[in-house]
Amino acid sequence: MPKNKTHSGSKKRFKTTSGGKLKMAGVNMRHNLEHKSAKKKRALKRITILSKGDEKRAKKLLGI
Fold first, then answer.
1. How far apart, in whole angstroms, are the C-alpha atoms of residue 17 and residue 43?
2. pLDDT digits (tens, 9 = 90+) for 26-47
3. N or C end of the chain: smaller count of CB under 10 Å?
4. What are the tens digits of pLDDT across the range 8-27?
């Protein structure tokens, strides 16, 4: 049986915590930043923990 490949986009976006949860940075922080308010940009900079449903899908993509 061949090995499963890790999804390339997912491995760049998610990191695992020591407890096994997945964390990610805010989305929409790549471009058009001059149109976003400073408050919005500060909020998007924060690291967030994925919800249970999203975590299950992301772990499958990562092969965890």
1. 21
2. 888 889 999 999 999 999 989 9
3. N
4. 999 999 999 999 999 998 88
Domains recognised in the chain with CATH numbers = 8-62 (4.10.410.60)
In the numeric block, which tokens belong to residue 16?
A: 């695992």
Count CB-CB contacts under 10 A for residue 22. 21
Q: How far apart are CA 26 and CA 17, in angstroms?
A: 16
**CA–CA separation, 24 and 11 (whole Å):** 11
Q: What pTM was estimated for this model as a whole?
A: 0.73
Give the start-end residues of each E strand in 1-64: 14-16, 22-25, 47-49
User: Hey, which residues does 49 pair with through a beta bridge?
Assistant: 23
